Amino acid sequence: MQQIPSHNTDNKSPNYITFAGSLAFIYGLIGSDLNNPKIVLGESVEAQAQKIMANLDVVLSAHNLTRFDVVAVHVWLREFHRFHERFEGVWTECFAEGANPTRQLVGVSGLMRDALISMDFVVSCHSH
Q1: 38-68: burial string, b at 16+ Cβ within 10 Å, e else
Q2: What angle, rounded to 10 degrees, do the helices at 80-94 and 45-61 form?
Q3: Which residue in 42, 61, 82, 96 has a CA-CA distance of 20 to 30 Å to 1?
Q4: In 3D, which of 67, 74, 66, 52 has the Cα closest to residue 120?
């Protein structure tokens, strides 16, 4: 298996991923810009979910991982009853055929930066 550093060596960029054995954990991704979190979040749950997935791709690719390596996703939705169906429409586009991680959706009363959605990912590093 390829050795993957478990911390950033430049001490400047945030550490979005933590490695433990053959697993990687990506927690608290919201629909903000990874390089400039002060940029305004998208206004819809769909836009925020799409940005989270784009952020996920950036974090994964930096470690030679892909969405096919994701084994579990935890989704935190503000106003669950309002956004659940809208999120489901985006979810079907999130993972290619053959990539089907287990998923948990949880409704919450609030998220950081007033985000509508936040996602956590568990990633398998076995194939790398």
Answers
A1: eeebbeebbebbbbbbebbeebbeebebbbb
A2: 40
A3: 96
A4: 74
Residue pLDDT, tens place only, 59-107:
999 999 999 999 999 999 999 999 999 999 888 888 878 788 999 999 9
What is the model's pTM? 0.85
The count of other CB atoms within 10 Å of the CB of residue 95 is 16
Domains annotated for the chain, with CATH where assigned, are: 17-124 (3.30.1330.40)
> Locate tokens 């106003």: which residue?
79
Q: Alpha-carbon distance 11 to 73, whole Å?
A: 27
